[in-house]
Structure formats: structure tokens, C-alpha cells
Design goal:
globular; alpha/beta
């Protein structure tokens, strides 16, 4: 795993970031799972932009910085040495050489990441990092505004969504033990999922104040509530084929190599619709 940190590094020109599948959407819509599987199917890199925000947030928390001090947060965030392995089979996250893949998913980081990602200096820094991670040889990138800010010329743009209850069940299943039980929560499975659903609603509201989540014009709006991961991946692969960025014999065409950094008409689907308007551009968020 290579890394870039504490110095300027050549970055891909955004005009060249076309060999990209941009997956945007809220938490629990299936982005991470779908992105990894699509990257495997295409033989491309997998870039989880949310992980970069979480790693920087952990760095800020460890430094004991007041999250309300935007200037200090931005200054400390730029010092973080963040490494992402873009191999979809082993998407590790390192912070200053330490594997923090699990820690960045903890409650402390989850509670603070919206505040840190709201700082313009943090977003600007991490957009550059994310573009470096993507490279130009093919990447499946998931986040909140990949298609509008990070890679606006992506060949494939998909906005993944799901009903509130489905999102809550998926996110609950990702918690330690897979039982959807946030720390300190009592009650049955339904109660625990309800707690997660409220937490997601709160997170959406906080994020929307600084980085409103909307599908971009030209993106396929895909409701994944009743779709399997494989069904969604098949749609994405078909879109990549139609866009001409992969051949019809896709699997393993271009194997993704681990790297790191500092910091036409879509297939017919009853769940797919195209958004009618273009949202204002915003910096990337988790």
C-alpha cells in the first residue's frame, strides 16, 4: 500500500475522471455493498469517500479539537495521513499508519463526522484526496455527491435510495453483532430498528443543512428497497457497458490495484426514475 501525505502530489484532472461509476445516496441505501460488488464485477477500484471523512474525523477527535472551531478542525484535518486500500476485497483504512477500519465506524466518529465534514477546508482537502484515489483507469466511487462534485463527468451516475424502514434495517444489521442494537438500547428487534431509524433521520437532517443530498440530472434514480444486491450490480454493469467504458465481457477486465492517498438510456426498471432537476454543486460529504 502506497501513500501520499504531507506534500503536494499530482492529481488527476477532473476532466479525465470519466471512467467512473458514481454512486450517491443516503446511508442504508446499499451504496457500500453495491459499490464493492460492482467494483469486483468490473475489475475496478473501490473508493469509499465516507471512509475518508471518518478517518479525518477520528484524527480530529484524537487531537482533542473543539468541533465548533472550524479553523482548527480544518488545520488539523489537513495534517492527517489517510490511506485507503482500493481493492474491493480488502478495503482497509489507515490513519497515520494505524489500521482504523473498524474504529471509524464506532459511535464517537459517527456522532462527530457530520460536524467535521461541514468544514469547507476539510471538504476541499478530501475531494482532492478522493480524486487521487480514483485514478483514471476505472473506479466505483460511493458517497453523497460524487456525480455533482467529485467526478461530475463520470460515465455512469446512479442515485441509490430505499425506504426509511429498509435503510434502518440494513444499517442496524451492520452494527456489532448484527442485531441492530445501538449501545445502551433495550427492547426487542423492532425497538432497536426504530432507534436506528430515528438516528438516520437525525443524521440526514444534520447533513442536509450543510450538504443537501439530491440526485443529479442524468443519474439513474434506483430504489433498492425490493432489489437484491446482485440485481443492482447487474444494472450498474449494464450501464457501464452502454456507456462504452467496459466491454461486454466485463468480469476481471481491468483488475483493481491497491493504492492509497493522504487523505444513453438506462436499463428499464420499475424502480428506476430519472431526476428532473440539477441540484447546486456542493462539496463531498460522508
Amino acid at each position: 500500500m502506497s501513500a501520499v501525505g504531507g506534500r503536494e502530489a499530482p492529481l488527476p484532472d477532473p476532466q479525465h475522471l470519466t471512467r467512473v461509476v458514481a454512486l450517491d445516496g443516503p446511508a442504508g441505501s446499499g451504496k457500500s455493498t453495491v459499490a464493492r460488488q460492482a467494483a469486483l464485477a468490473l475489475g475496478w477500484r473501490f473508493v469509499d469517500t465516507g471512509a475518508t471523512y471518518r478517518a479525518v474525523t477520528l484524527h480530529v477527535l484524537r487531537a482533542g479539537i473543539d468541533l465548533a472551531d472550524a479553523e482548527a478542525v480544518g488545520r488539523v484535518a489537513r495534517r492527517a495521513r489517510v490511506e485507503l486500500d482500493v481493492d474491493p476485497l480488502s478495503p482497509r483504512v489507515l490513519l497515520d499508519g494505524e489500521d482504523v477500519t473498524a474504529e471509524i465506524r464506532g459511535a464517537a466518529v459517527t456522532s462527530a463526522v457530520s460536524a467535521v465534514s461541514a468544514v469547507p477546508a476539510v471538504r476541499q482537502h478530501l475531494v482532492s484526496l478522493q480524486r487521487e484515489l480514483m485514478g483514471v483507469d476505472g473506479a466505483v466511487v460511493e458517497g453523497r455527491d460524487i456525480a455533482t462534485v467529485v467526478a461530475p463527468l463520470a460515465a455512469v451516475k446512479v442515485y441509490l435510495d430505499a425506504s426509511a424502514d429498509v435503510r434502518a434495517r440494513r444499517r442496524a444489521a451492520e452494527l456489532p453483532g448484527g442485531q441492530g442494537a445501538p449501545s445502551g438500547t433495550l427492547g426487542g428487534a423492532a425497538d432497536r430498528i426504530a432507534v436506528v431509524e430515528r438516528a438516520l433521520a437525525h443524521r440526514d437532517a444534520v447533513d442536509d443543512r450543510t450538504n443537501a443530498l439530491q440526485p443529479t440530472e442524468g443519474a439513474l434514480h434506483l430504489d433498492t428497497s425490493d432489489l437484491s444486491v446482485q440485481q443492482v450490480v447487474e444494472v450498474i454493469v449494464a450501464l457501464a457497458q452502454r456507456a462504452g467504458v467496459v466491454s461486454d465481457s466485463v468480469p476481471g477486465e481491468h483488475a483493481a490495484s491497491p493504492v492509497a492517498a493522504h487523505a444513453e438510456t438506462p436499463p428499464t426498471s420499475p424502480s428506476a426514475t430519472s431526476p428532473p432537476t440539477t441540484p447546486p454543486k456542493r462539496e463531498a460529504g460522508p
